[in-house]
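cache lookup: miss for this entity combination. No prior model stored, computing from scratch. Input as submitted by user K.M.:
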Amino acid sequence: MLRTGDLKLMQELNRSIILNTIRKKGPISRSDIAKLINISPTTVTSAVNELINQRVVYEDGVGSSSGGRKPVLLRFDPNSRYIIGVSISNSFIKISEMNLEGAIIKREVHSTHQYQGNEIINLILTIIEQFITSKDNIDLCEGISIITPGIVDSSKGILSYNSKLKLYNIALKQIVEEKFNIQTHIDNDTNAFVQAENYFGSFSQYKDLLYITIGDGVGSGVMINGKTLRGYKGSAGELGHTTIVRGGLKCECGNEGCLENYVNWPAIYSKIVSSLLTRGKGTFIHDQVKGDLSKITPALFVQALKEGDVLCLRIMDEVVSHLSTSIINTIHLLNPEVIILSGEIIQDNELFLGAIRSKVAQGVIPILKEEVNIQPTSLGADFEMLGAAAVILQEKFQFVFQ
Amino acid sequence: MLRTGDLKLMQELNRSIILNTIRKKGPISRSDIAKLINISPTTVTSAVNELINQRVVYEDGVGSSSGGRKPVLLRFDPNSRYIIGVSISNSFIKISEMNLEGAIIKREVHSTHQYQGNEIINLILTIIEQFITSKDNIDLCEGISIITPGIVDSSKGILSYNSKLKLYNIALKQIVEEKFNIQTHIDNDTNAFVQAENYFGSFSQYKDLLYITIGDGVGSGVMINGKTLRGYKGSAGELGHTTIVRGGLKCECGNEGCLENYVNWPAIYSKIVSSLLTRGKGTFIHDQVKGDLSKITPALFVQALKEGDVLCLRIMDEVVSHLSTSIINTIHLLNPEVIILSGEIIQDNELFLGAIRSKVAQGVIPILKEEVNIQPTSLGADFEMLGAAAVILQEKFQFVFQ
DNA sequence: CATACTTAATAAAGACAGTGGAAAAACTAA
DNA sequence: TTAGTTTTTCCACTGTCTTTATTAAGTATG
């Protein structure tokens, strides 16, 4: 139900704004906060006192004077509390303790042992239990954040659908919360990644983002007006299952000509293999592989492109052509401020980015041409953990009314 | 900039909630409002006093007693103020005075005289001037709302792009506000229609809507989380210019295989014509047209479908096939709660709706099949004016913090 | 180095919106 | 007529923000 206004709401709102100001603009003085957000210095003082009491903010020296008393500088303390992030993928369960800036304090990686269904759930619970039993400061845990591929209804905390792990309609949030008595959040992985790009990455100035990751499939996350788009039942963002070829390949999702069937590593891999078999003698990739197909990796593909391997360049053009169709469609439908690409074949691959940029620019409505902004991911190797952290921190630090 | 919390914000918020409660739930007593929104009766009394002072709410008799004092019933007064709506299309400029429920009090329709560019702007200004000069209660005007096809940056009040009328980067909001000194809002027409479906129509319980209108082109509007999606520069919602046929027809937008080229009335019309020329003897539509091509109208097309005309049925199937590709893509990307179709060929056309529903159900990810909800527009003939009203009323009655 | 001027932070007083309890108003039921 | 109920309002109170000092801690300058 709608929240009505009372003094408590007022205070919560102001404290949240002040804390976020310190977090984003710190080190900053009380006086500067007051000027910046246009609030009385008195209010800042009392709010900061409370935040210091909660150990989430601390005083850190003084700034330089501009003709009067030196300002006391305030900083956000990212180590005042911690988060537990859990990333479930098809082969691994990663778990880590992070501070409030997403810095990893402790981490573990476990195999899924190809478990499925209930076994996976039990495995997750065991892993979490072992991870936290040693901790004596469990009261400082801000929450557990679990991310997974598939369809997740994050508001209800239900993992609705993950076909690879055979998980259907699991009330995972409830299960974890009841077992460990720690606030838990569950979300789709790509939704988490787009949040992380916005929260931790170099895209914090944008509010409308499209994130596309290319791996075994094509995943995507959409942020609109600063909020991750979840759709009616939490299944928004399935760009990989939008049709780009009418009457095209039948997809296991039931649809036809889905982007995912044309743009993913297995598709690229098999194109390379079949090209190598039919021709390609003398090309860079042919010389590198020397008949050992296991040497064909995304990294080698990227390297081949850099070496000007015509065979791989041709394959890249096909991929670019398909992907750009989807990107253009999404621009026309949503017009995001930035489109972020990730995945091994995009990693360190300016050639691919340049090709996508020019292909998209060709097809987009002319008035939008100047605005198209396609960038590689700004998250590093720990993007999964950053994703988990981002969804929980976003929730903690973003004051919401409804 | 972010708004901080003070007593004024608190009061504004509560008054807005109370007014909306009366508007939506009225007639309702002060006491029931207090219970419904969980606020103290005292606060309701003082807020209602102010709203009655502003004439936006009035007392309307008493309700029945449930064992004590009879409640005084409060109603929203839709006639306390009025709105001026202006709809600009390729051939007509419609202007009307509406009350706060979108009921039309006075209306005019003007031809655009095929004017373009500056001439159109001057014509609009003249039409508005003549429409309001006679009014002596201009202080009761809540605002002017202008809607138009094309790309509109509604936050800046700029009409960025309307190729048919040759309007580019017109600061229309500013122009109108400076001339008439009345708060003015400008928005894209389909964005306004989706708002109207949500505000006036039968889709008020939904917060994620996709609106598609089929006419000379394909227009669309997207509402996410109760807010119209405008995109970075106000050009979101161009579903008509998303590719559904790779390597398909070159579109004037620069893209290829755009939905709009396969699904619109001119395309259907020319298919009917060419079918009639090659075959079709003895079919319903052939007998009705009798060689007079001007008799081929959307209404006749719909009638022919009802009569089981095989020629038209085949054309419908093609249209349905193309349209459903786009709808499936949008469901997978955005997963709206409801998809609303409008346009003459959808009007009173259950056959078409049924065909779309079953085609979409076939292609959509199985887990979403049950959730797909495709409905015809709930707005009547005055949808343009309702659209104009909706955008301005939404702004007035929806309390926003940022 | 004393004095005047700045700037930062805090304290005290004041303003004001919402709350809770009491009272008034208006009704029902017996 | 009386007791009980429901609606509405009045009034004192609470609590948060703001304004207006006040204190603290600096700089600039003759």
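stored under new cache key. The domain at 7-76 of chain A is CATH 1.10.10.10 (Arc Repressor Mutant, subunit A).
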